[in-house]
């Protein structure tokens, strides 16, 4: 058995922050941001009504409805988030209550930064393949806006808030294949310290370290090298041709990274859908938000072969080959 996506949901906060809005409080401009990243706007959540858990629940409820399932039949909920509003219990527990799953439904979270949703998807797949779950809800929800230094133009322009979710059902058919990789040694270029370390409160630079910190050039180099490579390795390991893939659904971090991947793989850019223009980088929520949009627009159809790939802090990166 393998996990087939039978339902999708997503949520983007109402408030939009354009590049021009950003230019009001940091030294930047629309042209610079668009040329370097492809982003024109991002959504910023309301701190009370659209916090991470609320966004996660909204996307999850929508995915369950889209799947047309009875929530009592959900065996497992796996939620990816690096920016939850609760340290514990896990975000998945809050989602359990919101969707109306029973106490027979297991819940846990995955903290794997931007590739978190893909990691959660792979955990779900493994539960399904081993026969330990038949119906799994996989959620990605992030509120990077809470963790940004809004005076640092090198990073605050990149991110947006949002959530996405999918329901996976045990089905016959092509197995979902994946590769996951990590390099902690190279991970210093993308980092955020937990603010709750009382003994470090007075340490110089500590407060800044509790926001997203990044060496943009290093992360860029890592992404344009490793993403094409892991996709090529995936096709070699599982013996399929990249020409037979209908769509490459990549983490929406930077349009130039996606364009570079298309170029290196010699696959037309039309096969690399993007919505980063108006979402920014929503971290682990980016792939399910994009998938929901593709399904709603009729571009993503049942039976299509997809490669998903994501990358981020860790450094971690992964790639999957699935049939939708
Ligand atoms: C962040 C990123 C857009 C910066 O683009 P870049 O071309 O590498 O730009 P640099 O950081 O080298 O900066 C170039 C110049 O632009 C300036 N600059 C940086 N941010 C700017 C901004 N928002 N507006 C205007 N100028 C800016 C820099 O200060 C620098 O000026 P200098 O040459 O006078 O020193 C790019 O490196 C990137 O997208 N990296 C990947 C990040 C990512 O995806 N992270 C998440 C992974 S999940």
Task: Characterise the protein shown here.
The protein is α/β, with parallel strands linked by helices and 324 residues long. It folds into two domains: 2-171, 3-Layer(aba) Sandwich (Peroxisomal Thiolase, Chain A, domain 1); 177-323, Peroxisomal Thiolase, Chain A, domain 1 (3-Layer(aba) Sandwich). Helices cover 32% and strands 23% of the residues. It has ten helices and 13 strands. The protein has a five-stranded mixed beta sheet, with helices on both faces. A four-stranded mixed beta sheet has the order 8-13-12-11, sandwiched between helices. Strand 4 (76-80), helix 4 (91-99) and strand 5 (106-110) form a beta-alpha-beta unit. Helix 3 crosses helix 4. The chain binds coenzyme A. Coenzyme A is lined by residues 28, 32-33, 36-37, 114, 153-154, 157-158, 214, 216-217, 219-220, 253-254, 281, 312.
Question: How do the helices and strands line up, and which of them pair or pack?
Answer:
Layout: E1 2-11, E2 15-18, H1 19-22, H2 30-37, E3 41-44, H3 52-67, E4 76-80, H4 91-99, E5 106-110, H5 116-129, E6 135-142, E7 162-171, E8 177-182, E9 190-191, H6 206-209, E10 213-214, H7 216-237, E11 247-250, H8 255-265, H9 276-279, H10 286-296, E12 305-312, E13 316-323
Parallel strand pairs: 4-5, 4-6, 11-12
Antiparallel strand pairs: 1-7, 2-3, 6-7, 8-13, 9-10, 12-13
Helix pairs in contact: 3-4, 7-8
The structure holds coenzyme A.
List of distinct ligands in this structure: coenzyme A
Q: Which structural class should the secondary elements be placed in?
A: alpha/beta
* Main sheet characteristics: 5 strands, mixed
CATH class of the largest domain: Alpha Beta
Outline, from the CA principal axes? globular
| Low-pLDDT windows of residues | none
Adjacency order of strands in the biggest sheet:
1-7-6-4-5
- Our Rg estimate from Cα atoms comes to 19 Å
In the CATH scheme, what's the topology name of the largest domain? Peroxisomal Thiolase, Chain A, domain 1
Number of H/I helices: 10
Strand content: 15-25%
Number of strands: 13
First and last CA, distance: 15 Å
User: If classified by CATH, what would the architecture of the largest domain be?
Assistant: 3-Layer(aba) Sandwich
């Amino acid at each position: 058995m393998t996990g087939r996506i039978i339902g999708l949901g997503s949520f983007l906060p109402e408030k939009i922050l354009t590049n021009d809005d950003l230019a009001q409080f940091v030294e930047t401009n629309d042209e610079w941001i668009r040329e370097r990243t492809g982003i024109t706007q991002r959504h910023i959540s309301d701190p009370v009504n659209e916090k991470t858990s609320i966004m996660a629940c909204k996307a999850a409820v929508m995915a369950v409805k889209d799947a047309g399932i009875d929530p009592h039949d959900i065996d497992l909920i796996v939620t990816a988030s690096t920016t939850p509003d609760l340290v514990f219990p896990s975000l998945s527990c809050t989602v359990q209550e919101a969707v109306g799953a029973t106490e027979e439904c297991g819940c846990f979270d995955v903290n794997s930064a931007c590739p978190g949703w893909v990691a959660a998807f792979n955990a779900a797949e493994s539960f399904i393949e081993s026969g330990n779950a038949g119906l799994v809800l996989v959620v990605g929800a992030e509120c990077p806006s809470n963790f940004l230094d809004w005076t640092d133009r090198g990073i605050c322009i990149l991110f947006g808030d949002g959530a996405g979710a999918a329901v996976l059902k045990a089905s016959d058919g092509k197995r979902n294949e994946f590769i996951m990789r990590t390099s902690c040694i190279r991970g210093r270029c993308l980092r955020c310290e937990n603010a709750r370390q009382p003994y470090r409160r007075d340490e110089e630079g500590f407060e800044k370290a509790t926001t997203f910190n990044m060496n943009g050039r290093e992360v860029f180099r890592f992404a344009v090298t490793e993403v094409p490579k892991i996709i090529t390795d995936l096709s070699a390991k599982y013996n399929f041709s990249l020409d037979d893939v209908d769509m490459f659904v990549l983490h929406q971090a930077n349009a130039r990274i996606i364009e570079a991947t298309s170029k290196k793989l010699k696959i037309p850019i039309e096969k690399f859908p993007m919505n980063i223009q108006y979402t920014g980088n929503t971290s682990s929520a980016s792939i399910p938000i994009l998938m929901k949009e593709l399904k709603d627009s009729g571009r993503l159809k049942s039976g299509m072969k997809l490669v998903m790939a994501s990358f981020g802090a860790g450094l971690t990166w992964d790639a999957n080959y699935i049939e939708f």
